[in-house]
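Re: export button greyed out
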Amino acid sequence: MLSEEDLNSRVGYQLPGGEYLLEPYKNWLTNDAVGAPNDENDFAHPMFCYYAALNTMGVSLEELFAIFGATSDDGVMFGEAEIDIKKPLVPGSTYAVSGQVTGVERKNSKKLGVFDLVDFELNLHDGNELVGVSRNSFIFPRELNDDDQ
Amino acid sequence: MTTNSPTVGFEFPHYDVGIVDAEKMKTMAVLLQDPNPIHWNLSAVERLGLGSKPINQGPNNMAYVVNAIVSWIGGIARFRGLKVRFHQNVFAGDRLTVVGRITDIDQVADGELATCDVQLVRGDLENSDIVMAGQASVIL
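Workaround output, generated via the alternate export path:
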């Protein structure tokens, strides 16, 4: 388990990011898969704020977990997820994705034992314009309480 | 906002997501580049002790709530955001409904911004089996 000092040192860690092409066929298939109508062609499904961000943060989830000394076998869980749309996303556009770890906290609960809560934020830009933000948190279980072992 | 616009406390129409389809999870696994086999491989689900049905991707559950909001408000352009916490797994075969109500209205540069409490509920609404909950924001 990372020391609390090591954990805290991860705040500000810059994710490599990259560019995401929001391909129209992916928007169509996504709408079809999640039950959204395919009759609004001007704007992409708002969840592409999340898809583009996570797809293009520049590291895989496994690599992200490794930054915090964990693997997917450690039972890492989603905490919260947020999309903040500044401007609707448009199929056919390319967005620049950048992001960083914004917060960490070591906590202890009766249910999970000791765990680390890690927040990260990914920004989507169209040129110089911020069009969307994806904020997410992961829960890294560390040690079960004696009662749970 | 017109005189007929909804106010704080307004409950938007229940949105019937329908039955969660395992085949759609396969499409989304490819689109999301999500290698987690719990979305398509029953053996993996069972080996991990997570039940006997494929588990829906969390972002799919978010998408259903977005669909509900966009359907109510009448267009993607007025959708502003969604923040959720995942409470339970959603399985293939689950029937889901989105419910929600306005909790706050603020004046912003492009109109009236409504904040809504939203819930994704499994099965009959009276059982209150909430699988995901959070807040959404839209321009009225």
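The first strand of chain B starts at residue 11 and ends at 19. The button fix ships in the next patch.
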